[in-house]
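Model it.
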Amino acid sequence: MAASAGSTSAWSVTKSLCFEDCGGVGAGARPGGLCELFERYARAARQSAASTGAITLLVSHRFPTVRMADFIAVLVDGHVTEFGSHAELIEKRGHVCGALPSAGGGVCVRIHFQVKLPPHTPVTDAALTEIARRHHVYVDGPFQILPETGIFNAHYALGSDLVLRVPRDHPEHFAALRRERIAIAAVRNAGVKAPELVEIDEACELIPAPFAVYRRVDGQTLESLALPPAAVAEIWRELGRELYRTHSIEPDDSNAALPPPGPLADPREMADAYASDGWFTKVEARWLLAWLARLAPFALAPARPRFVHGDTQGSNIMVSFGLRYVALMDWGSAAWGAQVDDLAVMPWGAVRFILEGYREHPIEEDTYLEARIVWRHLQLGLVSLPRGPQPALSWVERPLSKLIDTFAFFLRNPPEPWRGLGPERLT
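Modeled.
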């Protein structure tokens, strides 16, 4: 790329500020320190622009470092999807300007202000009639989408015994459906109660997407009952037993192709960014960052990969009308992850009962499991905070549920080891 004398001068000033005054910026730099450093970059760039007309180009993966720019271009998959000032992009409520690095480093996760889902794949009554007839169900329709319990798929009843599952019109949703083929076979062989997969069709002839046909599971979702965890404690314990069986699955040729879970942003970066953007003040940010700093050495330590469901929220737990555990649904997020991936997407009141069931059997348990659970609750709460209200989605998808529940849990003075993993008093 050709550079004018002015732009070279601006780059020289920036380079000098970074390496002479700060001794270099490395992975261990304090997030707040980077914000202050880039404020100095911005001042130097503006001074250079005033004297020489230079234009400074800043490429950043961090939200607070780009908010001071005059213009921001948001890149998604190599294409500019939005352009404007920080205020204009916030007003549009599209992508947050920038991205946050994951705890593993090197991979960036975009944060969105609202959940924007791909459209449902179109399905005609003629296609549904033909799929039903393949399975000796003779129904001519009209067909209707069943009530949604998740966000990835649409479901259609094929008679009284079968359900058609069609992912939304996006390659990632198609890939999740394909993962179910691997996961369902593995967990049912391990004795886990999961729905029977009758067929996956990837020909895209009847429907312009892959689809699956499942044996219908009678019951209702645990979340739909809106009962406190203590009222259904045995259901949560049974989930813990099922997760023990799931996590005990060993890798082999049939399941080793499952990917790791997608990366999540570092909550320390998010706390700093939200303070800069006015969600709360620096006082609360310092309190939250101090808490996260105490958890980080344990939460970010390497963990042994385990076969995980990846989305064990109440909307995926089927129970009978007599309040007995029936099955764990929706295996499209199955992955080789960590134990915490299945133990931190439900209310704190349920965690105790899940761990009781999980620990009824011997398993090589993550030494830092409790610290990781606390970290993940805070992490998920901060990730979803900018989305705004999500009235149609589940508990784990609602932005404030996890944060309020976490703060309330520690206000109740929980027993050890939880008490020692809580925050310091806010002064």
